[in-house]
């Protein structure tokens, strides 16, 4: 499956952004989907994941209550709604797909397909 993230940009602290990840070649309904982020020089960090049907979601503690992951299988698209953004949310955000979510399988938590990232910059 090919993944393409979009929606990044430059915003101020407290603002909101919605990232989108469009899939091609295969339907995303076969995959658990996730969002990760990476700051240059640091390891990629888990942000959120969502089950194949959307019934279950998982979040990093640092974004819980501020970010919401969702999916539209009919559109083969997964979203990340980011509210109350902070300067520490600045990173390149990547969407990912896998056959199962595994919180203990670090660092990728079961994700095996990765898209190109989109830059999110939050100014304080």
Q: How many strand elements?
A: 11
Strand content: over 45%
Listing every helix as H and every strand as E from the N terminus to the C terminus, the arrangement reads EEEEEEEEEEE
Our measurement of the CA-to-CA distance between the termini, rounded to an integer number of angstroms, reads 36 Å
Residue runs with pLDDT of under 50 for 5 or more positions:
none
- SS-based structural class? mainly beta
- What is the 3D form? globular
Global Rg = 13 Å
Helix content: under 10%
Biggest sheet statistics = 7 strands, mixed
Mean pLDDT score: 95
Task: Specify the number of helices.
Answer: 0
Overview of this protein structure:
The protein contains no helices and 11 strands. With about 120 residues, the chain is mainly β. The strands form 2 sheets. Strands 2, 4, 5, 6, 9, 10 and 11 form a 7-stranded mixed sheet that branches. A 4-stranded antiparallel sheet has the order 1-3-8-7, with no helix packed on it. A hairpin with a 6-residue loop joins β5 and β6. It is globular and about 40 Å long. The termini are far apart. The mean pLDDT is about 95.
Features:
globular, 124 residues, 7-stranded mixed sheet
What's the quick description here?
The protein contains no helices and eleven strands. The protein has 124 residues and is mainly β.
């Amino acid at each position: 499956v090919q993944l393409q993230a979009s929606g990044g940009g430059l915003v101020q602290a407290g603002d909101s952004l919605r990232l989108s990840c469009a899939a091609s070649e295969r339907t995303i309904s076969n995959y658990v989907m996730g969002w990760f982020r990476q700051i240059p020089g640091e390891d990629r960090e888990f942000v959120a994941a969502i089950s194949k049907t959307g019934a279950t979601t998982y979040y990093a503690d640092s974004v819980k209550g501020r970010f919401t992951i969702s999916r539209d299988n009919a559109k083969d698209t997964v979203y990340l709604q980011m509210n109350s953004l902070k300067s520490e949310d600045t990173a390149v955000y990547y969407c990912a797909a896998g056959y199962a979510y595994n919180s203990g399988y670090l660092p990728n938590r079961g994700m095996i397909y990765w898209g190109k990232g989109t830059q999110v910059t939050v100014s304080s």
